[in-house]
Design goal:
Blueprint lengths: L1 H13 L3 H29 L2 H18 L16 H33 L3 H6 L6 H20 L3 H24 L4 H13 L2 H14 L6 H7 L2 H27 L4 H37 L2 H15 L2 H16 L5 H20 L5 H4 L3 H25 L4 H24 L3 H10 L1 H20 L1
Helix pairs in contact: 2-7, 2-12, 3-6, 3-8, 3-11, 3-12, 4-6, 6-8, 6-9, 7-8, 11-12, 11-17, 12-13, 12-15, 13-19, 14-15, 15-18, 17-18
Length: 453
Amino acid sequence: MKSLLVKINTKLNAQGGFLKAVSVLVGGTAFAQFLAFLCLPILTRLYSPEDYAVLGIYVAIVSILSVIACLRLEIAIPIPDKDENAKSLLVISLAINVIFIAILYLLLLLAYPLIKDFHIIQQLSIWIWFVPLGVFLSGLYSALQYWSTRRKRFNDIAQTRMTQAVLGNGASLGLGLLAWGFGGLILGQLLSFGGGVLKLGSSAYKDIKQVTKKVAIKDTISEYQNFPKFSTLEALANTSAIQLPLIIIASLMIGPEVGYLMLAMKIMTLPMSLLGSTISQVYYAQAAEKKQQGSLKEYTIDILIQLQRISCLIPIGSIILYFLIPFLLGDKWYRTGEIILWMVPWFILQFIASPISMVMHLQGRQKQMLLLTASGLLLRISAIFFVVTYLGSYLAEAFAISSAVFYLICYFVFCKSIGINLASQFYILRKNKFFIMFLLVTFVFNSLIMGAI
């Protein structure tokens, strides 16, 4: 066993520490997700679907606002060759975050008399005033995390992810036992947003003190102006495409529907985001080199073949979850199992398309990516309003189906940008004919279950 571990460690370090870094980050994320999964059966018995619906609204609002809290300048922190430039970016990001939160509180103070009678605001009650705080903590952690990434403190980042999981879930469990209602979930989420900020912040402060050379703030903003211009809009559209439908559904349907939907998304995301993000990191790390060698198309085809094979686990897992949810979460959560079945095409296509999405940035097609992301937002919102107008319900189903359509479009756009034509698509299908047949069988079984609902 010892010799095997030595070989693995040697191999990781031989590749410039990249795989080692990825393994450390994946380990921290895996712990956080495993702890969340263990706590979920207890939390769903301490809190009602209506409580989770309010949490879903809160998280959706915070998530949308937090991606623009630093105007995306924080993601540029690892790029500069010199530490003084990176320090300048960090300071600017933190300053923008503080200014943004001050503006949010001012706007909320001025707008509250006009919006206090809205259904969503009434649901959030006093916790609406904690929205800017959640945005601040999320933006602060993001900026500090990118600085730690620059300094290659991957162990620290992994530890903060574990801290977030322990604090967030621990607070929600403790306050749930004290019957705090949805306030316990929101406070737990706030601790999750801010968990690890002190650890990363203290290290960043020591680093900044050591950087003596000053860089003009104006020059730094000018050099990295494309991040606020393009990346901010893309990130806002991308996050809104997932979170804004939750807010719309909550405003159109009174009751626990958003709670069911949010929990279904969380359950489906727990295992798939870990694997998908890891594959995405590895693909992006190799894609630039493959492009220079002229073998990006062949490399991507190999990745797609493997992704399609792994995606067979999604419908199997969803069927198992559908039958287990009443036992794991309680009978009142049966609707979550139904929504999970509707989400299967969405998550299969997202799992296959998302890892190769980085090729759009590699090919310098940021504007096309922005247009594609904005189209996804419009598609989802249009589907929800169409369904509520003509059917009156099935909003969660409309969200799931429109998301599947969006990721199908993304898949073909990404493939086209690489040069993967129709003939190559048939080649991929032939290589995966057994897995495609297996997917079709599980889809039929899935459909039979949904038909019986």
